Amino acid sequence: MIEVTLNGEKTTVPAGTTILEAARGLGIRIPTLCHLEGKPPLGACRVCLVEVEGARTLMAACATVLAPNMVVKTHSGRVRAARRQVVQLLLSEHDGDCQVCDRNEDCELRELAHELGIERVPYEGVRAKAARDESTPALIRDNAKCIKCRRCVTVCGEMQGVGALFPQGRGFDTVIGPAFTQDLDGVACVQCGQCAAVCPVGAITERSHIDEVWKAIEDPTKVVVVQTAPAIRAALGECFDYEPGTLVTGKMVTALRRLGFDGVFDTNFTADLTIMEEGTELLLRLKKALVEKEPVALPMFTSCSPGWIKFAEYYYPQYLPNLSSCKSPQQMFGAVAKTYYAQKIGCKPENMVVVSVMPCTAKKFEAQRPEMNSSGVQDVDYVLTTRELGRMIDQAGIEFRNLPDGQMDDPLGLSSGAADIFANTGGVMEAALRTVYELISGRELPVKNLHLTAVAGLDGVKEATLKLENLLPEWAFLEGVEVKVAVAHGLSNARKVLEALKRGEAPYHFVEVMTCPGGCIGGGGQPRFTDDSVRLKRIAAIYAEDEGKTLRKSHENEQIKKIYQDFLKTPGSHTSHELLHTKYAGRAKV
Predict the structure, then answer these.
(1) For 51-62, what is the mean pLDDT?
(2) What's the pTM value of the predicted model, to 2 decimals?
(3) Of 108, 206, 277, 281, which is the active-site residue?
C-alpha cells in the first residue's frame, strides 16, 4: 500500500493503482472517452487529464500509475480548461448531426460537453469525411461521427478476439474500420454489436427495425406476435431510469400489448424446448461414444449464441460438427409460432409476422440466415434490441413506470426458471444439467438451490465436474462417468477453449459459449453503458427471477409436454429435426 493525496485528501491505495482507479474508489468521477474497464489504458482521448504536483504537463489519469506521496488534483481550474479544450477539438471534427442522431439522448460526447459548460465550438475547420457503411444486417457505421477513441478496436480485438476494426492512417486522416477501409461485410465480423455498445457517440449503431415493425403492426392483414428474450426483463427498465437489474417483466408485457402486438410470448418457452432437444442430443452423443464406441464429435458446444456460431464458421470450421444441431431459442420460437401456433389460430405462415426483442445485434443477422426458414417462410421477420424497444415505447407515448403488470399469452408464454437463466453466462449449462441429471437419475441436480455455482460469475472460462451415480437402469451405461463441462463468455475466451481442444488439453463433454461478456445480459443491444457492476446486477436479477418461480426445470413445463404430445412427438423426432435443428458451414476469412 502507498499513501497519496487526491484533491487534498490523504488516502492509501495498492501499489500499481492508476489515478483513475483511485479516484473512482473515492467516488470522484474523472471523465474518459477511451478507457474500458479491465483493459490496458490507451490514453487516446486525453479527456481524463489531471494535475500532478511537480509534473511538467497534465497527465492522463487512466494511464498514470500512482507513486508514493503523489499529490493529484482532478478538477482544478487548469484541468477543467484543458478538458474543455480537448472536447472542443473533438467537437470541431465530429460531424454529429445531433438533431437526428440515434444517440441524441445517449451520447457521451454531448453529455461531456454539457458538463464542461461548452456552449460553442471556437475551432472551425475540415470535418471527417462521411462514409456510411450499411453492408450488414445488424450494424451501421458512420465514420463522420467517429471520434477515434478506439473503444471499438479494443473490444473487437481483445474481448472478442475478432479484430474486424483497426485504426488506419495518421493524425486527422486516421480512420477506424475494417482493413483497407472495406465495409464490414467484407471482413470476418460476427456482428455481436459490442462495438456499438461501447461507442460513446453514434459512429456504430444497430440497424433499426422499428419502422418495419410499426408497419407490420398497422397492417390489418397480418397477425403480429412478439417474443422477448430472458435478458430483456432485467435491462429494459434502464431505458426508463430504473436501477440496473430491476425486473420489469410484467410492465414489459403490458407495454408490448399496448404497442399493438396480437400475441405477447416468451422466448423462454423455446429455451425450455432447447433444453429438451439439446439435452437429448448430448445424451445420444455420450451413448455413441461410451457404449457403441462410434466416433462422435465431443465435446458438444451450445449453439444459442449467433455471434459464437459465426465465429466458429470463420475461425474454427473443423469444430462445426461439435456444435449442437439445435437452433437458438429465437429461431425455434419462429418455427414453432409459424407452424404449431399458426395452425391453432388458423393463420397461414405467410400472414404471420414474428418479432423478437433481443439483447443482441447478431440476432438480426441470425434471423435472415438461409437456414432459418423451416416454417416455409422466414421464421423470424424482425429483431428489435432492448434499446429499440425502449424507443418504441417512448414513440407510443406509453408511461412505462405507471404500467400495471401483465402476463404472457398462452401457449408459448409459459416457461421455467431454467429458461430465465439462459440470460447469464453459465445459465444454459446449468439449465441443461438440471434436466439431464434428473432424467437419467430420477433425482434433482445435487447442488444447493439447483445452482451450479462453479460455472456462474464473470471468470472468463469456468469448469465443473459432475459424477454420475445411482442412475436409472436404462442409463446404467453412464454409471460412474465424470461429466466435465466448461463455460466461456466473450469470444477471446472461447478461442482459449478451442485452442486447448486443438492441443488435446480440453477433456470436456459439454461446453457453453456466449458471445458477449456476462452472457446475454451484457449483449450488444442492451442499454449503455455496461460494465461489470451493471452485469452483476442484471445477473442477480435473473437468478432472482428463476428462484421466485415454482417451476424451475424445463422438463416439468406442462406446455412443453403438450407441444410434444400434440405436435413434435418426442425430443429428437423427425418433426423436431425439421423445425428445431440445423447445420452450419465454414466461411472464408478475409
Answers:
(1) 96
(2) 0.95
(3) 281
Q: Which of 303, 324, 415, 554 is labelled catalytic?
A: 324
Chain segment 80-130, per-residue pLDDT in tens: 999 999 999 999 988 877 888 888 888 999 999 999 999 988 888 788 777
Cell of 42: 490507451
Active site residue 278: yes
Catalytic residue chosen out of the listed positions 415, 520, 553, 576: 520
* 195 a catalytic residue: no
Q: Is the pLDDT of residue 580 over 90?
A: yes
CA atoms within 13 A on the CB side of 467: 3
Instruction: Quote the CA–CA distance of 206 and 136 in Å, as a whole number.
Output: 10
| Number of Cβ atoms within 10 Å of the Cβ of 1 | 9
Clarify whether 348 is annotated catalytic. Answer: no
Q: Which domains are seen in the chain, by residue range? A: 2-75 (3.10.20.740), 89-206 (3.30.70.20), 210-269+331-402 (3.40.50.1780), 272-329+415-580 (3.40.950.10)
Q: How confident is the model at residue 135 (pLDDT cuts 50, 70, 90)?
A: very high
Using H for helix, E for strand and C for coil, what is the string for 457-497?
CCCCEEEEEEECCCCCHHHHHHCCCEEEEEEEECHHHHHHH
Active site residue 371: yes
Catalytic residue among 62, 199, 304, 516: 304
Are the CB atoms for 64 and 41 separated by under 8 Å?
Answer: no
Contact 498, 316 (CB under 8 A): yes
Under 8 Å between Cβ of 152 and 204: yes
Active site residue 304: yes
Residue 366 annotated as catalytic: yes
Q: Single out the catalytic residue among 278, 313, 512, 545.
A: 278
Average pLDDT score over residue span 467-496:
95
Q: Which of 251, 363, 364, 553 is catalytic?
A: 363
Please confirm whether the linkage preceding 122 is cis (ω < 30° from 0): no
Q: Identify the residue whose cell numbers are 425455434.
A: 332
Which residues make beta-bridge pairs with 176? Answer: 167
Span 455-478, mean pLDDT?
95
- Residue 408 near residue 272 (C-beta atoms within 8 A): no
Dihedral (CA of 555, 561, 563, 567) sign: positive
281 is catalytic: yes
Calculate mean pLDDT across residues 409-423: 95
Question: Active-site residue among 93, 115, 371, 547?
Answer: 371
pLDDT of 590 > 80? The answer is no
Eight-class DSSP state of 581: B
- Peptide bond preceding 567: is omega within 30 degrees of 0, i.e. cis? no
Is omega for the bond preceding 411 within 30 degrees of 0, making it cis? Answer: yes
Ramachandran angles phi, psi of 541, nearest 5°:
-65, -40
For residues 436 and 554, give the distance between their C-alpha atoms in angstroms, rounded to a whole number. Answer: 10
pLDDT at 97: 78
**At CA 29, angle to CA 27 and CA 33, rounded to 5?**
145
H/E stretch holding 537 = helix 532-547
